[in-house]
Amino acid sequence: MSQPGMKLDSSLDKVPLFTVGWQLSQLPTEAKCLRRESKEPAMNPFQKNESKETLFSPVSTEEVPPRPPSLPKKPPPKICGSNYPLSIAFIVVNEFCERFSYYGMKAVLTLYFLYFLHWNADTSTSVYHAFSSLCYFTPILGATIADSWLGRFKTIVYLSLVYVLGHVIKSLGALPILGGQMVHTVLSLIGLSLIALGTGGIKPCVAAFGGDQFEEKHAEERSRYFSVFYLAINAGSLISTFITPMLRGDVQCFGEDCYALAFGVPGLLMVIALVVFLMGSKIYRKPPPEGNIATQVVKCIRFAISNRFKNRSGDLPKQQHWLDWAAEKYPKQLIMDVKALTRILFLYIPLPMFWALLDQQGSRWTLQATRMNGNLGSFVLQPDQMQVLNPFLVLIFIPLFDLVIYRLISKCGIKFSSLRKMAVGMILACLAFAVAAVVEIKINEMAPPQPGPQEIFLQVLNLADDEVKVTVLGDENNSLLVESIKSFQKMPHYSKLHLKTKSQDFHFNLKYHNLSVYTKHSVEERNWYSLIIRESGKSISSMMVKDAENKPQTSHKAGTTAVRFVNTLHKEVNISLGADISLSVGEDYGVSAYRTVQRGEYPAMRCQTKDKDFSLNLGLLDFGAAYLFVIANRTNQGPQAWKMEDIPANKMSVAWQLPQYALVTAGEVMFSVTGLEFSYSQAPSSMKSVLQAAWLLTVAVGNIIVLVVAQFGGLVQWAEFILFSCLLLVVCLIFSVMGYYYVPLKPEDIQGPADKQIPHTQGNMINLETKKTRL
């Protein structure tokens, strides 16, 4: 592409094309940070024009004045005799551990809300996106603290301590033995708030601090350092997103999924990150804080607006542009740069909707995966492990698009501009959510029906030694089954019964041999019940057992299955379901509550009574199913388990999510990477830090959109997916119209006079700017 800052330096041709995939793959946040380090370093255009009358002296965090005398003149130690400072090794390891910490914790966050704190899906989604949004607001605070007060080193250290404290509190909130649900909720929210402050606060500082370690003459090494830096980011993300769901699901703590371990390991990695960072303290180059250009931009805009309204009388001549009203206080070059900035910010207005869709991979799409079958043959995938597809596919798609797709389009004579690429990226995200809606509809078709108002679902378990005919007395409900229910007959499904009120008494007639037994049971609407018929001497009796309050949610717990037992023996039975899972079932038709266990084969479960030990073969317990086991001694082979499937297993494979992940990731590559390239090519050097902040804010606003829709939309899931898809399509049309009338700036229009006077070797980052090296 012809815009400045978008061509690869010839000396880096063998590196950047693939490493760009590493650099911009995982998050737009990191991409912003490093692109800022690469592009922003150009000398501030206002520095040369400073005068006594100038009331504003703009400075940037990446400005490159001569080093203060206090800095050591001795060259920093190098890595193995190369031109790479030894200090960057500590920074890269720190970034790997920090990204492992953040993404590892976030990977299991939605399921933690749903299954540990027992929030509903909408609340879990809302809090997840509120946390994500806060993580993109706090970088502005971190950058301000670093640039105007503490400097980058101290900011990273202090906010990392806050980060570690947040992880500790978050892990404590996941311990079942520590208080009740209110305590867990409070600790979780406090921990997440501190984590958001820590991760967001250090986000704009770490990459820039790494760039500070290089001498001015080693610009090429600095470029390659950023490639390694992004490799660390994506390596941490990939590994943690794959490992932490395994720590959650494969390890049992206190008889449940081990969320405390899944949060504790990322917390430990953050401690390691801080320790490693401090180990390099004595060899770091630590430039002092130099001021924040974003503050001056806000002041300039505010002054222009206020001055415009003060002079509405018409006594003064009209200005060509509303920002020209700031000319009496701020230099012309600043006003020109702010004008260029506002042109790009105008194009940013539609962008949050794209992030609203992209960031739902960790919330709505993960919840969708919990209702699918994760068995892929030789490997069983946890629902929250599906998120690893995004960074993995990004690493494949970026070189694929750069080397193949874009070149083929160019050879066909099609002008595929940056704004067109972004629009196509939006369309791909629309298609991804349309596919997600189709998958959701298919899941709903395979799922068991839900009882509505004034309805219940009832199944009959005949544990007597002969068949029984069950009839519900009343006008609306006829016989449950046309044929009699045989002894230990497996019911094909639940039967729906209609109620006249929200709760009522049902009268049943049970015909057994030559006996007619009448019984009465109370039920409430929207519930599942099991009518258990048992022997009582020469007659029979019945008992009504209320099944789980929300059986589908209980049985579809992420990567697990649910079991319960009915004990027909005359002695209490203790059943061991695993290392930390056991339950007791009372004698004489005692019924246990549902317990969740991991999916798998259970050929010999150890059971105990007061005077006897025996084992039960439970067979395969599949994803999302709910099973009932009746412990009975009907043969001379000892007690055995009679198995019934209350809720069928998830039938739809989680592999059906692959198309939607592929589409949204392709959209991300075309939208995010291209958007950053375009923005940086169109913004003046002095405005790149402000542009980074604005890009972060679009991500934050996108997460707020999801929060609002999830909390107040009230739509079924497939309809919500369609809504987001349609909204983004409308936004894409608006963005296309805006892009059609946008006139790209030429390099000579972007560079101010001061830019052209900068020597080629001056400043800490000048080489990256003048050579137009793209990271």
Automatic annotation (TrEMBL):
<dbReference type="GO" id="GO:0005886">
    <property type="term" value="C:plasma membrane"/>
</dbReference>
<keyword id="KW-0399">Innate immunity</keyword>
<dbReference type="InterPro" id="IPR036259">
    <property type="entry name" value="MFS_trans_sf"/>
</dbReference>
<dbReference type="GO" id="GO:0140206">
    <property type="term" value="P:dipeptide import across plasma membrane"/>
</dbReference>
<keyword id="KW-1133">Transmembrane helix</keyword>
<feature type="transmembrane region" description="Helical">
    <location>
        <begin position="227"/>
        <end position="247"/>
    </location>
</feature>
<keyword id="KW-0653">Protein transport</keyword>
<keyword id="KW-0325">Glycoprotein</keyword>
<dbReference type="GO" id="GO:0016324">
    <property type="term" value="C:apical plasma membrane"/>
</dbReference>
<dbReference type="InterPro" id="IPR029028">
    <property type="entry name" value="Alpha/beta_knot_MTases"/>
</dbReference>
<dbReference type="GO" id="GO:0140367">
    <property type="term" value="P:antibacterial innate immune response"/>
</dbReference>
<dbReference type="InterPro" id="IPR000109">
    <property type="entry name" value="POT_fam"/>
</dbReference>
<comment type="function">
    <text>Proton-coupled amino-acid transporter that transports oligopeptides of 2 to 4 amino acids with a preference for dipeptides. Transports neutral and anionic dipeptides with a proton to peptide stoichiometry of 2:1 or 3:1. In kidney, involved in the absorption of circulating di- and tripeptides from the glomerular filtrate. Can also transport beta-lactam antibiotics, such as the aminocephalosporin cefadroxil, and other antiviral and anticancer drugs. Transports the dipeptide-like aminopeptidase inhibitor bestatin. Also able to transport carnosine.</text>
</comment>
<feature type="transmembrane region" description="Helical">
    <location>
        <begin position="340"/>
        <end position="358"/>
    </location>
</feature>
<feature type="transmembrane region" description="Helical">
    <location>
        <begin position="185"/>
        <end position="206"/>
    </location>
</feature>
<feature type="transmembrane region" description="Helical">
    <location>
        <begin position="421"/>
        <end position="439"/>
    </location>
</feature>
<keyword id="KW-1003">Cell membrane</keyword>
<keyword id="KW-0968">Cytoplasmic vesicle</keyword>
<comment type="subunit">
    <text>Interacts (via extracellular domain region) with trypsin.</text>
</comment>
<comment type="similarity">
    <text>Belongs to the major facilitator superfamily. Proton-dependent oligopeptide transporter (POT/PTR) (TC 2.A.17) family.</text>
</comment>
<feature type="transmembrane region" description="Helical">
    <location>
        <begin position="259"/>
        <end position="279"/>
    </location>
</feature>
<keyword id="KW-0597">Phosphoprotein</keyword>
<feature type="transmembrane region" description="Helical">
    <location>
        <begin position="721"/>
        <end position="743"/>
    </location>
</feature>
<keyword id="KW-0812">Transmembrane</keyword>
<dbReference type="GO" id="GO:0071916">
    <property type="term" value="F:dipeptide transmembrane transporter activity"/>
</dbReference>
<keyword id="KW-0813">Transport</keyword>
<dbReference type="Pfam" id="PF00854">
    <property type="entry name" value="PTR2"/>
</dbReference>
<keyword id="KW-0391">Immunity</keyword>
<keyword id="KW-0472">Membrane</keyword>
<keyword id="KW-0769">Symport</keyword>
<dbReference type="GO" id="GO:0030670">
    <property type="term" value="C:phagocytic vesicle membrane"/>
</dbReference>
<dbReference type="InterPro" id="IPR018456">
    <property type="entry name" value="PTR2_symporter_CS"/>
</dbReference>
<protein>
    <recommendedName>
        <fullName>Solute carrier family 15 member 2</fullName>
    </recommendedName>
</protein>
<feature type="transmembrane region" description="Helical">
    <location>
        <begin position="388"/>
        <end position="409"/>
    </location>
</feature>
<feature type="transmembrane region" description="Helical">
    <location>
        <begin position="693"/>
        <end position="714"/>
    </location>
</feature>
<dbReference type="InterPro" id="IPR004768">
    <property type="entry name" value="Oligopep_transport"/>
</dbReference>
<keyword id="KW-0571">Peptide transport</keyword>
<feature type="transmembrane region" description="Helical">
    <location>
        <begin position="158"/>
        <end position="179"/>
    </location>
</feature>
<dbReference type="GO" id="GO:0015031">
    <property type="term" value="P:protein transport"/>
</dbReference>
<feature type="transmembrane region" description="Helical">
    <location>
        <begin position="127"/>
        <end position="146"/>
    </location>
</feature>
<feature type="transmembrane region" description="Helical">
    <location>
        <begin position="100"/>
        <end position="121"/>
    </location>
</feature>
<feature type="region of interest" description="Disordered">
    <location>
        <begin position="38"/>
        <end position="74"/>
    </location>
</feature>
